[in-house]
Amino acid sequence: MAAPRTTREGPGHGAASPSVTSRALRVLEVFAPSAPVRTLTDIARHTGLPLTTAHRLVGELTRWGALERDGEGGYRIGLRLWEVASLAPRGLGLRELALPQLSDLVHVTGENAQLAVREDLSVVYVERLAGRGAVPVLTRVAGRFALTPTGVGRVLLAHAPPEVQERALSGPPARCTPRTECDPGALRRALAEVRRTGVAICEGQVTLDSVSVAAPVHGPEGTVVAAVSVVAHLGRVEPHTLVPLVRVAARGISRALGADTAPDLTGPVRAAPSGSATHR
Predict the structure, then answer these.
(1) Is 172 exposed, middle or buried (0-12, 13-18, 19+ CB in 10 A)?
(2) In 10 A of CB 33, how many CB atoms?
(3) What is the DSSP-derived secondary structure letter of residue 195?
(4) CA Rg, the chain, in Å?
(5) Lowest-pLDDT choice from 52-56, 116-120, 256-260, 275-279
(6) Domains in the chain and their CATH numbers?
(7) What is the DSSP letter of 221?
(8) What is the pLDDT of residue 141?
(9) What does the alpha-carbon distance between residue 116 and residue 78 come to, in Å, rounded to a whole number?
């Protein structure tokens, strides 16, 4: 007969053991773009779970559809999770409304067009379209990135609550290139400039060969709910020529979301000093 379940690690231990849900989530967390396929042994090792426990959880997740087994005995994320993720209101719904504007940006510029939202202290990319010959970027759909070195991240951070801004600026700096701005004072000035102009421009903050222009997307109540950007080849494109295009796209997406009005900051945008500019 199976031993009765306990909510403790064992006799004499005061700490509660992880719930079944938390252990199942730990299993899903071992999958990443760099490791889309995992063996059962990999899963047990990376989660710290006993092999028998990992085997049981993987079996349950596979039967539900969260995981799929390939022909060589490995496991990968299943389509059932994609079905569930599609219900997220800030995910595919936002993406579908924004796609026409993003497609226009790619068609006109031939470069990358991106749409992102903020999740705590991270940028989550909802969509990315790339033109023929577009500059390579480090982002991917559903991928996360730090707020401070990215243009869309700085747009979102500039309009976030003050306590979120302070947490982001007081944390470990996210340095991607030698030009990435990490000084909190300079970043505060950059965020103030984003609020003043309604756009973020930067060069070489995430990759040295790219320049980015980003603008805020407003929701029905006028709050900033997302950011859109174009990431282009540094030196091939004058960033200020992209500003009107990105602003028009942001306003179009805002209208599709039901925003009554979005600030029409169409005045000149001052070039940000090297090192304090915003990127991607």
Answers:
(1) exposed
(2) 8
(3) H
(4) 22
(5) 275-279
(6) 20-84 (1.10.10.10), 92-256 (3.30.450.40)
(7) T
(8) 82
(9) 24
Alpha-carbon span 149 to 130, nearest angstrom:
20
Cβ-proximal residues to 96 (8 Å cutoff; 6+ apart), any chain? none
Q: How many helical (H) and strand (E) elements, i.e. helices and strands, does the chain have?
A: 9, 8
Amino acid letter at 160?
Answer: A
The owner of tokens 């936002």 is 94
DSSP-based three-state secondary structure for 187 = helix
Pick from 165, 86, 166, 161: nearest CA to 126:
86
Q: Which residues touch 93 (CB under 8 Å, ≥6 apart)?
A: none
Residue 189 one-letter amino acid: R
**DSSP element (H, E) containing 119:** strand 112-119
Q: How confident is the model at residue 166 (pLDDT cuts 50, 70, 90)?
A: very high
Name the token pair of 184: 């909190």
Q: Which residue has the tokens 């020529």?
A: 241
Q: Which residue has the tokens 């709910």?
A: 225
pLDDT, mean over the chain:
85
Distance separating alpha carbons of residues 90 and 154, to the nearest angstrom? 18
